[in-house]
Amino acid sequence: MRSIWLTLETNDMVFQLTKRLAFPNPRLGEPDGLLAIGGDLSVDRLLLAYSNGIFPWYAFRQGVIEWWCPMQRFVIFPNEIHVSHSMRTLMNRQKYKITVNRAFEKVIKHCGDLRKNEEGAWLGKEMTEAYIRLHEQGFAASVEVWDNDTLAGGLYGVALGRCFFGESMFSLVPNASKLALIFLARFFEDRGGALIDCQFETPHLKSMGGRFISYEEYMEYVRMD
Asked: Is pLDDT of 114 > 80?
């Protein structure tokens, strides 16, 4: 796999993917995690990517697939999920119903719609269709939060082995995405899940127990049987 120089603000070097189903060594990526561009969003390439801690993104250069693999990984261990007093109160009220894989396409559509006007929005038609294909083959899942029969929030991601690679979440009512994440952590832990990959740190995820681990430690979990 050859490397090329791109005209970027930092003039950093990244790898150009070809049709060959392969990725460069993630440790050769840029300090911010950008590893490569190009390639495709086939099921086989996505599975190869996630099994090595690599994920796609369309940020910064619309129409060009970027592949990222930060060496410091922001994760939530299911048994470390933080549930605040206010969230416990909301959960005890049982106002919302939570389901798994009942409305994957609706969840991903809401995630995309809520961010389509944001700078660096990445969840366009190609990405959406790619994750739907993963879901149809059993490698992507969603959690839905319902207010009666109305979808009020949720999240989706890729599920491989004992890891869940979170991709996006949304809320149409306060705290719906938090409910989805708490449910995911408990549901996943009960079934032997070991790690939820959050990809990037946010105050929201940090408040719920997210923390950094090294890529080496991260890959130990990804490779678990």
From this structure: no
Q: How far is it, in rounded angstroms, from Cα 40 to Cα 22? A: 11
Q: What is the DSSP string of 200-218?
A: S--HHHHHTT-EEEEHHHH
CATH number of the domain at 74-222, please? 3.40.630.70
Cβ burial of 203 (10 Å; 0-12, 13-18, 19+) is exposed
Domain at 3-69: CATH code? 3.30.70.3550
Distance, CA of 180 to CA of 173 (rounded, Å): 12
pLDDT at 113 over 60: yes
Measured distance CA(196)–CA(221) in Å, rounded: 10
The rounded distance, in Å, linking the Cα atoms of 26 and 15 is 10
Beta bridge partners of 195: 163
Prediction pTM value: 0.89
One-character DSSP codes across 116-141: TTSTT----HHHHHHHHHHHHTTSEE
Mean pLDDT over 10-23 rounds to 79
Q: For the chain, what are the domain ranges?
A: 3-69, 74-222
Tell me if 39 sits within 8 A of 185, measured CB to CB. Answer: no
User: What is d(CA 153, CA 180) in angstroms, rounded to the nearest whole number?
Assistant: 7
Helix-helix angle 43-50:125-136, to 10 degrees: 80
Q: Are 51 and 173 in contact (CB under 8 A)?
A: no
Predicted pLDDT at 58: 74
Q: Cα–Cα–Cα angle for 153, 159, 164, nearest 5°? A: 70
